[in-house]
Amino acid sequence: MKQRLMQVIGQKETAPGIFEMKLQHDHVRAMQSPGQFVHIKTGTRRHPVLRRPISIADVEDDVLTIIYRVEGEGTKLMKEAVPGSTLDVLGPLGSGFPLPESGRALLIGGGVGIPPLYYLMKALKARGVKVEVILGYRSREQLFKLDDFIELADRVIVTTEDGSFGHQGFVTDAAAEVSAFDQYYACGPGVMLRAVETTFGPSGYVSLEERMGCGIGACLACVCERRDQAEGNTYAKACSDGPVFRAGEVVL
Amino acid sequence: MKQRLMQVIGQKETAPGIFEMKLQHDHVRAMQSPGQFVHIKTGTRRHPVLRRPISIADVEDDVLTIIYRVEGEGTKLMKEAVPGSTLDVLGPLGSGFPLPESGRALLIGGGVGIPPLYYLMKALKARGVKVEVILGYRSREQLFKLDDFIELADRVIVTTEDGSFGHQGFVTDAAAEVSAFDQYYACGPGVMLRAVETTFGPSGYVSLEERMGCGIGACLACVCERRDQAEGNTYAKACSDGPVFRAGEVVL
Amino acid sequence: MSRLQVELPGLSMKNPVMPASGCFAFGREYAQFYDLGLLGAVAVKAATPEERAGNPVPRVAETDSGMLNAIGLQNPGVQAIAEKELPWLAQYDVPVVANVAGRTKEDYMYTARELSRVANVHALELNISCPNVKEGGIQFGSDPGMAAELTRAVKEVSEVPVYVKLSPNTSSITDMAAAVEKAGADGLSMINTLVGMRIDIRTGKPILANKTGGLSGPALKPVAVRMIHEVSQTVSIPIIGMGGIYEAEDIVEFFLAGASAVAVGTANFSDPFACPNLITELDQLLEEMNVDHVSDLSGRSWKAWAGEISS
Amino acid sequence: MSRLQVELPGLSMKNPVMPASGCFAFGREYAQFYDLGLLGAVAVKAATPEERAGNPVPRVAETDSGMLNAIGLQNPGVQAIAEKELPWLAQYDVPVVANVAGRTKEDYMYTARELSRVANVHALELNISCPNVKEGGIQFGSDPGMAAELTRAVKEVSEVPVYVKLSPNTSSITDMAAAVEKAGADGLSMINTLVGMRIDIRTGKPILANKTGGLSGPALKPVAVRMIHEVSQTVSIPIIGMGGIYEAEDIVEFFLAGASAVAVGTANFSDPFACPNLITELDQLLEEMNVDHVSDLSGRSWKAWAGEISS
Ligand SMILES: Cc1cc2nc3c(=O)[nH]c(=O)nc-3n(C[C@H](O)[C@H](O)[C@H](O)COP(=O)(O)OP(=O)(O)OC[C@H]3O[C@@H](n4cnc5c(N)ncnc54)[C@H](O)[C@@H]3O)c2cc1C
Ligand SMILES: Cc1cc2nc3c(=O)[nH]c(=O)nc-3n(C[C@H](O)[C@H](O)[C@H](O)COP(=O)(O)OP(=O)(O)OC[C@H]3O[C@@H](n4cnc5c(N)ncnc54)[C@H](O)[C@@H]3O)c2cc1C
Ligand SMILES: Cc1cc2nc3c(=O)[nH]c(=O)nc-3n(C[C@H](O)[C@H](O)[C@H](O)COP(=O)(O)O)c2cc1C
Ligand SMILES: Cc1cc2nc3c(=O)[nH]c(=O)nc-3n(C[C@H](O)[C@H](O)[C@H](O)COP(=O)(O)O)c2cc1C
Ligand code: FES
Ligand code: FES
Fold first, then answer.
1. What gap in Å lies between CA D173 and CA D180, rounded to an integer?
2. What does the alpha-carbon distance between residue D139 and residue A190 come to, in Å, rounded to a whole number?
3. For residue range B21-46, what is the model confidence (pLDDT) as tens digits?
4. For residue A83, with 0-12 CB atoms within 10 Å meaning exposed, 13-18 middle and 19 or more buried, which class applies?
5. What's the predicted TM-score (pTM) here?
6. Is C23 a residue of the active site?
7. pLDDT band at B233 (very low <50, low <70, confident <90, very high)
8. With CB atoms 3.0 to 4.6 Å apart as the test, which of B70, B208, D103, D158 could cross-link to D116 if both were Cys?
9. What DSSP element (H or E) covers C60?
10. Segments in chain A below pLDDT 50
11. How many angstroms separate the CA atoms of D143 and D147, rounded?
12. How far apart are CA B112 and CA B145, in angstroms?
């Protein structure tokens, strides 16, 4: 867990409002666990006051890829970063997805929950795991990263909310389509994760989005309730105990 | 008095921490009165909250020149403006120096009070006024705009606080040197203006620096006390009644 | 009826946006930029019975996302205002909210009576919260009993509705609000500035000659929103909200908290067109949000029946 | 003696900088970044008698130059803290300031007694100003009489000096300070957060599940500086200053206002190295300013004999 000024080496808008940025630094080599995230400082020393948590979407040698949607002030500042400038990156943070040695995995991503699944898919494929992917987007215009998934995955199912591409509906509406799997890995908004747990059951992992302060476990901003409340163990911190939890481990 | 996004067409550091910036906009043609200033918005909509008052240092056709010292947040942001970007400029504001039709003028500038005197000198010379100038700097390294003054003025006297160039001391320490004049025009910090009034008497004009809010006369931040307090006339506003006042008109 | 029109006691407003008292003088300066008739109302600079010179300079200092001011109620006195400033404003089709200050109850009563008789003054704003003067003002603003007494006294002499402007420098803004509502206030203005200070580390002294000043601007916004949210649930008189409004989104936030109109102060200094721009942007934003009428938003953050806005 | 060393009741500090309570947990996380022995002291997260779950999420929201938090005193309870967290911190050569919270006087007394007996706890910080819990905390913090009673009670059971942490959500911070000083407080911590709110205009609801939260960060700084300036002139116990410290210049400003040490909260979140960096930068700044000792600056903005700093 380090804080580094990383060099922006490229950035492009891959769908309206969705940006893919590449950052270079020797320290990137330490980002080995898919599902972890980085905490990014934008703007000036005091403004905006909080960092922004963004998933690790890919790592190749010393190059980190992140994919983000422009929402508010922080991501607006990120999209303005030009190649050659630097970005203050804290990470890798949190614990990533546990990786099996073999078997069949189902990856389920919605919106900006999709990016970390790409790095996860690469790691799974490298271990010889069979990977099927459901990707949920808002609409055909909003598709991003899809080709890269298609290239590596054994099968990709796409859903769009408006039905303009693939299946109409949410990721869980494609449940009937999926092949048998040993475990699933899901990342997306809370409402999607709840639906995923209901639909696909307990054999899987979910990655949560919580509003964060410190990002390292010190401020208790990002907690979620554990279902199994062993003594002194009521709340888990999404930033340091998570963001990945076993399905059913925490209340979504 | 207008608010315009003007294009930055050039900027250079002419002495350590002193920048000369050129801005282009058709509206610049309206900036005809030397001694007036512009009020500049830097950064984002909300940050920093206040504009920065900067004197008009020169106008040529549609190009405005300003010269400023980097002090705090606002001027730091200004120096980062690259050619092609725009700057939010409100102005011309305030009332400038009254211009005589002929005679002999003494211009007295200290530090960042020097810039408006350049535009004033041009206007005076155009009218056939004889112009003698005293310019006060901190040191030889801090000299700026001097060559341009030398080129046009009938005589230029330089003082530096540390004596590393010209006369040692403040502008008033060069009083013995100056030729007879009809009126003087002074711009610089309050302490300098006080000394100038004491040394050179009442036949002149002084341009004040006050902390400003609105810059247009609405917030009453920038007031100074009038010596002659006619009813309802106790305070003058530096931004709209000034920044130029007759020597002795306001309490410095 | 336009989606922006709002009706408040004494104030029939084309839209809910007015410049805030003290940030707009009596309108002359901003009239050089745009037609003041575009505004929902105009809140003018505080008046006192006699002319006041205000505080020594420097009177303003910048802070992170805010500014401090210690103008000190400089004004030409209520007579000059009633005779020269307000009649000039009458050329515009816009209601005026006249801001009343003073040292004693009698000061307030006198000023209020005089101002309330001016034809284009449609409401008074009792400034019991100015942090920048030694006497009057702030004392009234931190003691519910005194605030109530003052409100009652002014209500007796005023010919137009009376809004009381509350100070955030208190541990219980709801007590203040309840007290002045009970005393007959027709509405509330919330909030005035928080007392703050900046020290220049080069000189070692406060930047402001008055040492302390009132903090306004974006830094104040979360405090204003919280106070309006609290107070609007406990009073039944309308609230004019203010404190760090810079964007149409901020206006919506103030309405959701419980405001029925808003005032814009510090934003005028960085953008002289802030008020008319906000009016246009608010109209567009409401359109995008599918809101029929801005008043529909008022208090929706706490009203039980309120669900998601965009339906 | 180094120019940064300061002596406060119970706290012999290498330098005047400590992380602020609640922003640093019990140090474990930041120990991954630097040696905690570099710090002047460590103020740890509030403890209550029993384990507390805290508030539902979201617990933080960003504002202009600030943030709101409503953690709600989540902590594992004083026993777990005394047995597991604080002993871990003892490996570092740094005094600990233990933050005490509770619902009742008895809660505070129990927690204070337990914490004060832990070897590396050199001072207590009475948190009578947490805005984010329904009972306790804030009530004690807005009533001088109750605050004094609580201070007296805790002083009786504590084996180490007691600092009382004051809330800015009050109309007279000097009354609070005077009351707790008289009751035996050894020092003051100023200030806790201002109560604020943000409403999400898409949902129409407050962003924080707790609705309101405490405003910290740069937006708070001018209020903190003002309050320390006021209080330091009326009490004779030292003040640990906090609220929006991000740069060495800010620390100098707090000292000039009247602080004798400072705490850094929100800045840790954007820069995990904030505290050690500030210590280095402060040393350099004092060198540039020709200040022999940081304590020389304390209260110079109001002390009669104080002239220009750089001489
Ligand atoms: C572990 C984790 C991984 C994430 N990975 C990605 C990713 O790979 N790509 C991507 O586009 N987004 C990702 N997000 C969401 C991303 O953090 C937010 O979209 C972003 O912080 C919004 O910042 P902003 O400045 O655009 O918005 P603003 O509205 O200005 O943000 C204001 C504050 O709210 C917080 N916030 C707002 N929305 C969210 C959110 N959805 N989740 C958490 N905090 C939020 C911000 O961090 C900030 O503190 C991730 C979130 C988490 C917790
Ligand atoms: C009419 C007028 C004309 C001026 N012309 C010039 C010029 O041509 N070149 C130049 O370099 N400077 C000029 N100044 C001074 C210039 O305005 C300040 O140096 C500048 O505002 C400092 O801003 P900052 O962001 O660098 O400093 P900060 O310290 O960040 O400023 C904080 C606040 O204090 C105000 N402030 C700080 N110093 C001064 C000052 N000396 N005078 C007024 N306000 C101040 C700022 O405007 C801002 O509101 C002029 C000032 C006035 C009033
Ligand atoms: C320069 C200045 C002068 C002010 N003068 C007054 C005043 O005379 N009367 C008053 O009631 N409020 C006065 N205020 C307070 C504003 O009306 C408003 O309540 C406050 O600034 C918060 O709004 P803002 O953040 O939009 O500025 C003044 C504020 C500023 C910045
Ligand atoms: C996330 C968070 C948690 C906090 N928890 C506590 C706490 O438990 N006890 C306490 O006395 N203050 C607590 N505070 C207040 C801080 O100690 C400090 O007084 C305040 O944040 C102002 O300093 P800052 O602007 O540097 O953050 C907390 C602040 C934050 C931001
Ligand atoms: S964000 Fe601070 S504990 Fe998780
Ligand atoms: S700066 Fe507002 S009146 Fe001069």
1. 11
2. 36
3. 999 999 999 999 999 999 999 999 99
4. exposed
5. 0.96
6. no
7. low
8. D158
9. strand C60-63
10. none
11. 6
12. 11
